[in-house]
Write a structure and sequence with these properties.
By secondary structure, the protein is an alpha+beta fold. It has twelve helices and eleven strands. It has helices at residues 16-31, 56-62, 66-78, 100-104, 162-174, 188-219, 223-231, 235-246, 252-281, 286-296, 298-312, 322-351, and strands spanning 4-9, 36-41, 47-54, 80-87, 90-96, 113-115, 122-124, 129-137, 143-144, 147-156, 183-187. A hairpin with a 2-residue loop joins strand 4 (80-87) and strand 5 (90-96).
Length: 358
């Protein structure tokens, strides 16, 4: 799994050398960055191959075609399947090829016998070729949307998150000049996290509207809603502190944890505000109702938060779920303090309450 991933995309017939050159520039930028660990490209290293130079004139005199030369070299080195051997329920191919010693002897390529499809006689390969020269080729050529694409992949060093690594070199990478028809795309964890967060927007907006409607209907007033909304942003203090302590990025799962945390805090605030309304219905004044509600709801809110925090604690050792666990644990711990301290303060501020003197 590669957290850092940059795609360099060219045309469908893009030159492999050009793609590798552009990838090398990105790779050099990463290798000089102290926050980057092992760096590689998904095209791997080039491999060497031996290419016989077919002589068309001599091949015509010997009635040997390019296909005959290809079949002869394939038979000698890779082997040709000439049958199948059944072993139980398995069918094993029967391959005919030269012995291992001859296959390793690349210098003996000239004496490989080539047989024409129109004759039973064979001629040595050197008779229909102008020699064999080594060439370099790409063992893998990846494509994306039918366009040649090479990826530069890396992971940050231990203790460093991907956002930190990307922020340290994004300007250098995007400053590289690309020829016409070539461009760069960010992939890896950055792309997956961005796409996942964007996919949440269509569901978050209606959900928040429904939550606001329910709160207004429940209290038949807008000021309790205002108290709850003003409390939620302060929860990011706890979330940020927790992520910094555990050195975890605010990724997609952390975002899910923050959304879940918002629901928990709204629930705790509703419980407290509802208790205030119960005290008011019993004939108590508003100031006393706030104080008694905060004291009476302290134990249930703390116990509920503690059970939730302990419930997600085992996820801290999981690399995948650690972001969600840290967000819920740190955010809910700090959010409990917010609920029992900030909600009464905001309630008193919104309603303009003052301490009553005996």
């Amino acid at each position: 799994t590669w957290k850092f991933d940059v795609r360099i995309i060219g045309p469908g017939d893009a030159d492999g050398t050009t793609l590798r050159t552009l990838a090398s520039e990105v790779k050099n930028t990463l290798e000089t960055n102290p926050l980057a660990g092992f760096v590689r490209t998904d095209w791997r290293q080039q491999v060497q191959k031996i290419v016989p130079a077919y002589n068309q004139e001599q091949g015509r005199w010997a009635a040997i075609t390019r296909e005959d030369v290809a079949n002869a070299t394939k038979r000698a080195f890779d082997g040709l399947v000439i049958g199948l051997y059944r072993e139980g329920d398995d069918l094993l191919p029967i391959v005919m090829r030269h012995v291992e010693e001859e296959r390793r002897n690349v210098g003996g390529l000239d004496v490989i016998q080539v047989r024409s499809a129109l004759s039973t006689d064979s001629v040595p390969l050197s008779q229909v070729t102008d020699g064999a020269a080594p060439q370099w080729e790409n063992p893998l050529i990846w494509r994306r949307d039918r366009r040649r694409t090479i990826k530069v992949q890396a992971n940050p060093i231990p203790g460093v998150t991907l956002p930190t690594l990307r922020a340290s070199l994004v300007e250098q990478v995007e400053a590289i000049e690309f020829p016409p028809g070539y461009h760069l795309e960010w992939g890896g964890e950055f792309e997956s996290s961005r796409d996942s967060q964007v996919s949440l927007v269509p569901g978050v907006v209606p959900a928040m509207a429904i939550v606001v409607l329910i709160i207004v209907m429940l209290f038949n007033a807008y000021r309790p809603l205002l108290v709850i909304i003003l409390t939620l942003p302060f929860a990011f203090i706890g979330i940020t502190s927790g992520l910094l302590v555990f050195n975890s990025p605010f990724g997609f799962l952390a975002l899910l944890g923050a959304m879940s945390l918002a629901g928990m805090m709204i629930k705790n605030a509703i419980v407290l505000l509802d208790e205030i309304n119960i005290n008011l219905a019993d004939g108590k004044n508003r100031y006393t109702s706030v104080l008694e509600a905060a004291m009476s709801r302290l134990r249930p809110v703390v116990l509920a938060a503690a059970t939730t925090v302990l419930g997600v604690a085992p996820l801290l050792q999981d690399v995948f779920w650690v972001g969600l666990a840290v967000t819920v644990m740190a955010g809910l711990t700090f959010g409990t303090v917010l609920t029992m301290v900030l909600v009464p303060v905001l309630y008193a501020t919104v309603y303009g309450l003052k301490e009553e003197k005996a």
